Amino acid sequence: MLWLDAEAVRNFVMVAELQSFTRAADALGSTQAAVSVKLKRLEERIGRKLIERTPRRVRLSADGALFIDSARAFLTAHDNAVAGLSCGIRRFALGIAGHVAGPEVTTLLARLNKHDPALTIEVQVDNSSVLLDAFDRGKLDAAIVRREDDRRDGEVLGPEHFGWFATPDFHHRQGEPIRLAALAPACGVRDLATRTLNDAGIPWVEVFLGGGSSVVTAAVSAGLATAVFSSRLAPPGTVEISRKFGLPEVPSSEIVLHSTLTDRRSREALRILACAFREHRATAA
């Protein structure tokens, strides 16, 4: 009788979904060599080649494409059976900073849910300082935020570059205060923008303050103000205007993952999210 090892199947699914042995190993908290060995043993056991690997590409073989849906179903049944041994509800509260969360977040969470449907994720979107405070008080199990001040803990997911963005027809007279649209005073990106202008001796005035990121985006897109945005999240139709108007360079920062999760499946799910986040940024770069 043919029987399947759950961990070997999990390695196969991870390689197939991430299309990389390296990223799969990172997501599983393993090594590339260990992932390769487990996949090879699975292929030998079922007598089929599941993954085609070249120096430039990793993809499903014809047999792998036939097996992938059954493999996912097998893992879901296995994980649900294991979860049934525990009375506790598996969940974690995840915070994502508003200046970090882009349109890709929905896709990333969908991938995470597909990987582990038994895990309940509660998402809170706010500014980095609020989320870090909630994390430190134990209200969040994990938080993906912009690095604040000199705090050095957490796992770096990647750099975050900022710029001054406005519409191409944004008008500003030299010598007049630069018109800003910004979130509430507690927002770290707002503080970064105003501090950068103050250090450069450039006068500024806030013509839109608060009301959420949609209000800031609307004000900038309407040509009424400028604002600091992450270069990857600037509103469509806007351009970087620092050179045009002599605005100072905005210091770069880092996106950091903080987590207190310890159980294997939750940590694995979080690694999936972190790996997918890095993968999306690399694709968008």
Automatic annotation (TrEMBL):
The record, for Pfam families, names: HTH_1 (PF00126), LysR_substrate (PF03466)
Task: Output the Gene3D superfamilies linked to this UniProt entry.
Answer: Periplasmic binding protein-like II, Winged helix-like DNA-binding domain superfamily/Winged helix DNA-binding domain
Is Zinc among the key words of this record?
Answer: no
* GO MF annotations, alphabetized: DNA binding; DNA-binding transcription factor activity
Give the keywords, sorted: DNA-binding, Transcription, Transcription regulation
| Start and end residues of each HTH lysR-type domain | 4-61
| Superkingdom as given in the UniProt entry | Bacteria
The UniProt similarity line reads: Belongs to the LysR transcriptional regulatory family.
Protein name, entry field: LysR family transcriptional regulator
Organism equals Mesorhizobium hungaricum
